[in-house]
Design goal:
Layout: H1 16-20, H2 29-33, H3 49-63, H4 68-76, H5 80-85, H6 102-111, H7 114-126, H8 144-154, E1 164-176, E2 182-190, E3 195-202, H9 209-217, E4 225-228, H10 235-243, E5 248-253, H11 257-266, E6 278-285, E7 288-298, E8 309-319, E9 326-334, H12 343-352, H13 355-361
Parallel strand pairs: 1-4, 4-5
Antiparallel strand pairs: 1-2, 2-3, 5-9, 6-7, 7-8, 8-9
Helix pairs in contact: 3-4, 4-6
Length: 432
């Protein structure tokens, strides 16, 4: 089978045409890019929009080309066969396929509809089959966090887990609006399939709360578990997730004193009293050891839409040898009944919620699309982002913004064809 466009990270640009030769890909990214309307005038248009976008996607995934200049330089080095495979049009007289210039990429990124591009790219990612965990590449075997992440991926999953999606927002560093306000993006991340499902830009004069439900209503979330932080602990949000979307919610509560007091009172008691509804997990990492204990109880008598259980999560941390040094307690509420989720299931959902932080937010690049198969775990750990002129500012491997030649976090050179000083895999260790 020919290589899919999602696996071009491992294909040099000189061998791109050979990778795409043969039968057309059943995922055909170009067909999804055809759904994006072209904002340019028909007169004087030389390059098809899907050709420009396909080149940008391949440049982004090849080595982190994160600016119009770097993308144009990468495209200029592609062979004629590669340009034809991506949708380039040959000159009727000379037969030459001319790649787009830097100005063409900049104009397209500045005028294209981010929502339309998001819809096309997320649709492509939705039909992409998941890849099984693979062996660590030689370059990453010395990295402790990469080894921990690979070992965790090989562990058997907790039986009985429902598909899980996490919702959270992130301010894109280096991306600003014309009024100089920062761009804030709200994302829905499919934790089970490791992909971004949807994304919305939050207005400068509002917050994430009114944007969450419109974003979720566009998705098929039937019988899924939606996790969100305390900001989204709203009655209307909980009601619509359960009634309109047919999903279950798990919300961390901290911003409503009356509800928090009711949950705290319901979970008060000794460890012996809650022994049957308690789950404890321990682990080591980052030079410390952690113990996470969850306590659950029925939500009887708590006035909250479709509440079934309440939970308390306690996290103790300390050095690998010695006493515990810190303690953190969080409370939550969920619509999952005991028959669908016991303490271990709820603990797994709560811990996996942080995948949106270390797999999506941690590697967020404002304005840069991502279509990478994780070179460590074999999973699609990097996904697409908004693409617009106000967002093209920083390296796709981190959130370090600025016009500097090299990103001081991952040593990625910009504007030179995407050569890497140190091309190490993206960290995907789970945080809590």
């Amino acid at each position: 089978m020919p290589a899919l466009l999602s696996s071009l990270i491992d294909v040099p640009r000189d061998d791109l045409s050979a990778a795409l030769a043969g039968k057309p890909s059943r995922l055909c990214l170009r067909e999804w890019l055809l759904l994006v309307p072209d904002p340019r005038k028909r007169a004087g248009r030389w390059h098809p929009l899907e050709f420009v976008l396909a080149l940008a996607v391949c440049a982004f995934t090849a080595a982190g080309h994160d600016s119009p200049t770097a993308i144009a330089e990468w495209a200029a080095g592609c062979s004629r066969e590669s340009l034809l495979a991506l949708g380039g049009q040959p000159d009727p007289l000379t037969g030459r396929v001319r790649p787009p210039s830097t100005r063409t990429f900049r104009r397209v990124f500045g005028r294209i509809s981010a929502d339309a591009l998001n819809h096309a790219l997320y649709g492509f990612l939705e039909v992409m089959p998941p890849a099984p965990p693979g062996e660590l590449p030689e370059v990453a075997r010395r990295e402790r966090e990469q080894r921990r992440a690979a070992a965790a991926a090989r562990e058997p999953a907790v039986p009985g887990l429902l598909p899980h999606a996490a919702a959270d927002g992130k301010t894109a560093r280096g991306a600003v609006r014309p009024d100089r306000s920062q761009v804030h993006l709200l994302s829905a991340y499919h934790v089970t399939e490791d992909r971004v499902m949807a994304q919305r830009e939050v207005g400068a004069k509002t917050n994430e709360i009114p944007e969450l439900l419109p974003m979720l209503e566009e998705l098929d979330l039937q019988d899924m578990v939606i996790t969100a932080d305390a900001l989204h602990g709203q009655r209307e949000t909980a009601r619509k997730i359960r009634e309109d979307l047919g999903a279950h919610y798990l919300l961390i509560e901290a911003n409503q004193p009356s509800l928090l007091g009711a949950i705290t009172a319901r979970l008060a008691g000794t460890d012996t009293q809650f022994a049957a509804t308690t789950w404890t997990d321990q682990g080591k990492g980052h030079g410390r050891r952690e113990k996470r204990t969850i306590r659950t109880a029925p939500a009887d008598g708590i006035d909250w839409p479709h509440a079934a259980q309440v939970l308390r999560i306690r996290r103790d941390a300390g050095p690998t040898r010695g006493p515990w040094e810190s303690k953190e307690i969080a409370y939550g509420i969920t619509s999952l009944p005991v028959g669908l989720a016991g303490p271990r299931h709820l603990a797994t959902y709560a811990r996996n919620h942080w995948a949106i932080e270390n797999r999506e937010h941690y590697v967020r690049s404002p304005g840069v699309s991502r279509l990478l198969r994780d070179v460590v775990l074999g999973h699609p750990a990097e996904r697409f982002r908004n693409t617009s002129a106000r967002g093209v500012a920083c390296c796709p491997r981190c959130s370090q913004a600025g016009p500097a030649l090299a990103c001081n976090k991952c040593n990625t050179l910009r504007g030179d064809g995407g050569k890497l000083i140190k091309d190490l895999p993206v960290r995907t260790a789970t945080m809590s």
